[in-house]
Amino acid sequence: MELLKKLALCTSPSGREDGIREIIKEEVKECFDEIYTDALGNLICHKKGNGKKLMLCAHMDEIGFVVTYIDNSGFLRFGNVGGILAYNSINSRVVFENGTVGTISYENKENPSNINLSKMYIDIGATSREDAEKKVKIGDMAVYHSQFYENGNRAISKALDDRAGCAILIEAVKKAEKSANDLFVVFTSQEEVGLRGAKVASNSVEPDMAVSVDVSNVGDTPASLELNLKLGEGPAVKMKDSSYIIHPSARRYMLDCAKNANIKFQLEASSYGGTDTGAIHLSGNGVPAGTISIPTRYIHSANEVIDIADYKASVELVKTVIETSAEEYLQA
Ligand code: CO
Ligand code: ZN
């Protein structure tokens, strides 16, 4: 889990992917024929091969907080970078890219159950505006300040969404015995603010088939929503979310890969959420595309939880996708 830990703890919110991109580039530099970064900050890794263009992706960015105003006492007002939930943030620690740490609180005349981000602030321990401005400027971004913990069964950290997906892609590329397609592995930028990196990357790669790897909510905690996914039952092949419906060719390809990988897997159909697949399938003339979901608890908090067996099974599934030609599935 060392790779996952290193990726998860890197501070790289949307639009500030430089740090995580350098770590990933270093990890995969021996695995591809060419690696380049596009104008939106996507890391595009190409392993030349015969057959159809297969694009696999996971997003590198994470949700965060952006400083919008500094008051005379040195408290920072902030906006969201992606899907920040107010109730997950009160009394959470955050860390800025330069290492400055703060804690989030709220105007305590308000009932905390009705709170929104406009009533909240970050306290970085500054004594005045001038003091705060020595550490933080307008537009600077922070992320949840978290530790990584694992006990052999489960891992807990910030940003498993979607550094788990990034780590799974890296491990699968290294384990694959052959590549049965013209393979593009893309670590995308700015997913959390609206699938922006994937939109640009898929327009330049022009894939024939695409598969994203991202996290999905589970229904296995006390009195939770009735969702089909459970931790420990394997990765899911996602049939639908609010951003796309799986293409029949992608469905047959992915379900065959899941069966041939000799792993437990689940089926998912959700009315919520979105992933890079939502942007990719609408690019160019349209792209058959699907998603591998990593079952995850407490998504978009400082303490997301995944199952380590699910993580390992996801590596096997992505490895099988890499080793399986997409071509015959596209013809039928
Ligand atoms: Co997310
Ligand atoms: Zn995600």
Q: Which cofactors or ions or other ligands sit in this model?
A: cobalt (II) ion, zinc ion
Ranges with pLDDT <50 over ≥5 residues?
Answer: none
- Give the name of the CATH superfamily of the largest domain: Zn peptidases
Overall CATH class of the largest domain: Alpha Beta
How many structurally independent domains? 2
User: Architecture of the largest domain, according to CATH?
Assistant: 3-Layer(aba) Sandwich
What is the fold-level CATH name, i.e. the topology of the largest domain?
Aminopeptidase
In brief, what are we looking at here?
Helix content is 28%, strand content 27%.
Describe the SSE topology.
Layout: H1 2-9, H2 18-28, E1 34-37, E2 43-47, E3 53-59, E4 64-70, E5 76-81, H3 86-89, E6 93-96, E7 101-106, E8 120-123, H4 129-133, E9 141-144, E10 149-150, E11 154-157, H5 160-175, E12 182-188, H6 196-205, E13 209-217, E14 236-240, H7 248-260, E15 266-269, H8 276-280, E16 289-296, E17 304-307, H9 308-323, H10 327-331
Parallel strand pairs: 3-12, 3-13, 13-16, 14-15
Antiparallel strand pairs: 1-2, 2-12, 4-5, 4-9, 6-7, 6-9, 7-8, 10-11, 11-17, 14-16
